[in-house]
């Protein structure tokens, strides 16, 4: 084609109109600034000002606007073949989608930067959003300068690319929110073979103490924020290698040094401490989980050792068969009348009388106390569960409760009971 031919091709894309040329220049500068943003303000894995994260948290809300607009554009373009007015609407919707996408990208970046989120999926989602915003801008410019020939063909090609970019970026965002494989978990087998988002298999089970006891604790409580998809503080806890590597603040596990191990320190801090883990309102680790982590670190934090001294791992318990409670048929009429009333009730566990009764105080919790419980002593041999939650029963009720010899479940939440007489 030669130099002259190349120049002529380029001129087909660069408008000669000064206004349109200014728009192209502005679009180029804007796109360049968006591409350079991650280099100028780096995602360093550390939390930043609260207001940055506050504003950034509007990203999940805002992103649905450009998604809906982007999907609408090709529908309007197709409909424009039958109703020309729709094609004019497509131009407006495309412009609006372009503006909204740039705002959404900035909100998303603020969310990642403010919360200290980094990781492969975070970066993929970020670059997908940037590519999507730039693609929309190119679509808008190509559409506004469409002339017969090359530019007329460029617009539909760019629009198709934008739709595929949207799908890929949405998949990365879904992975961040719901975990890897959320979109593809129930994909039919024929489509699964063609799945471009297929990920590598997860961590295999291990017969070591780490694999059986430590990794499941971290996987259930920590990996959502410290995994491959989302890596707050530069820390990953989804494998032994990453756990021992540590994060931005250094090592989190120091073998044989529990107090010097940040993993133990932060999971045992008071819940009102801002460094307490797990964060984001998740429940704290159970005492037995903390005990296992402590013992594992104290004894070398090995990836291979099959057991740790002082930690007994109970096997799967086999429930004893439920003992029958006897036949309460003689009390059926009285129990039935109670069930139809608005007060406390005795509810059959099943159609078999020998399966027992459940004492329910839900309809009378405010007025139910120790004196009312005494009235149920005649039914005591048949009651297998007593729901006394949010009633007024006190420690004095244990004298009555002790007569419920077949009791297997007792609910005392929200009562004045102190528990001193529970044994």
Please, could you describe this protein's structure?
The structure is a single chain. This protein starts with a helix and ends in a 12-residue tail after the last strand. The protein is mostly helical and 423 residues long. It has 16 helices and four strands. The chain has three domains: 10-193; 209-298, no CATH class; 329-411, no CATH class. Helix 3 packs antiparallel against helix 6 (84-115), helix 5 (64-79) runs antiparallel to helix 6 (84-115) and helix 7 runs antiparallel to helix 8. Helices cover 49% and strands 4% of the residues. Strands 1-2-3-4 form a four-stranded mixed sheet.
Give a brief outline of the structure.
The chain is mainly alpha-helical and 423 residues long. The protein has helices at residues 2-13, 18-40, 50-56, 59-62, 64-79, 84-115, 120-144, 150-178, 189-193, 209-221, 240-245, 262-267, 287-298, 332-340, 370-374, 398-401; strands spanning 345-348, 357-360, 383-387, 409-411. The protein has a four-stranded mixed β-sheet.
Keywords:
single chain, 423 residues, mainly alpha, 3 domains, four-stranded mixed β-sheet, 16 helices, 49% helix, 4% strand, extended
Provide the fold topology:
Layout lengths: L1 H12 L4 H23 L9 H7 L2 H4 L1 H16 L4 H32 L4 H25 L5 H29 L10 H5 L15 H13 L18 H6 L16 H6 L19 H12 L33 H9 L4 E4 L8 E4 L9 H5 L8 E5 L10 H4 L7 E3 L12
Parallel strand pairs: 2-3, 3-4
Antiparallel strand pairs: 1-2
Helix pairs in contact: 2-7, 3-6, 5-6, 5-8, 6-7, 7-8, 10-13
């Amino acid at each position: 084609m030669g130099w002259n031919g190349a120049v002529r091709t380029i001129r087909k894309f660069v408008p000669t109109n000064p206004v349109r040329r200014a728009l192209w220049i502005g679009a180029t500068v804007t796109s360049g600034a968006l591409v350079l943003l991650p280099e100028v303000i780096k995602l360093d894995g550390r939390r930043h000002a609260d207001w940055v994260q506050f504003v950034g948290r509007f990203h999940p809300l805002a992103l649905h606007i450009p998604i809906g607009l982007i999907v609408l554009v090709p529908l309007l373009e197709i409909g424009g073949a039958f109703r020309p007015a729709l094609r004019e609407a497509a131009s407006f919707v495309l412009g609006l989608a372009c503006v909204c996408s740039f705002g959404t990208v900035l909100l998303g970046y603020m969310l990642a930067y403010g919360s200290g989120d980094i990781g492969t999926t975070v970066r993929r989602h970020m670059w997908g959003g940037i590519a999507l915003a730039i693609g929309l801008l190119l679509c808008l410019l190509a559409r506004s300068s469409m002339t017969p020939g090359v530019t007329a063909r460029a617009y539909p090609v760019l629009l198709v690319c934008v739709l595929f970019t949207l799908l890929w970026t949405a998949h990365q965002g879904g992975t961040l929110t719901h975990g890897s494989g959320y979109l593809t978990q129930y994909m039919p087998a024929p489509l699964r073979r063609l799945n471009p988002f297929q990920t590598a298999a997860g961590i295999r089970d291990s017969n070591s103490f780490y694999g059986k006891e430590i990794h499941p604790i971290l996987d259930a409580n920590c990996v959502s924020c410290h995994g491959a998809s989302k890596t707050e503080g530069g820390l990953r806890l989804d494998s032994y290698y990453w756990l021992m590597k540590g994060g931005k603040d250094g090592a989190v596990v120091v073998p044989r040094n529990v107090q010097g191990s940040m993993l133990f320190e932060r999971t045992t801090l008071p819940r009102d401490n801002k460094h307490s883990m797990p964060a984001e309102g998740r429940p704290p680790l159970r005492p037995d989980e903390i005990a296992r982590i402590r013992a594992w670190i104290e004894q070398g934090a090995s990836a291979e050792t099959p057991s740790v001294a002082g930690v007994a791992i109970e096997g799967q318990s086999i429930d004893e068969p439920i003992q029958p409670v006897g036949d309460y048929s003689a009390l059926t009429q009285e129990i039935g009348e109670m069930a139809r009333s608005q007060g406390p009730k005795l509810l059959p566990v099943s159609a078999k009388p020998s399966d027992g009764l459940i004492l329910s105080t839900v309809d009378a919790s405010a007025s139910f106390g120790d004196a009312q419980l005494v009235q149920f002593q005649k039914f005591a041999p048949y009651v297998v569960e007593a729901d006394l939650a949010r009633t007024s029963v006190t420690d004095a009720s244990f004298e009555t409760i002790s007569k419920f010899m077949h009791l297997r479940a007792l609910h005392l939440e929200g009562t004045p009971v102190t528990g001193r007489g529970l044994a």
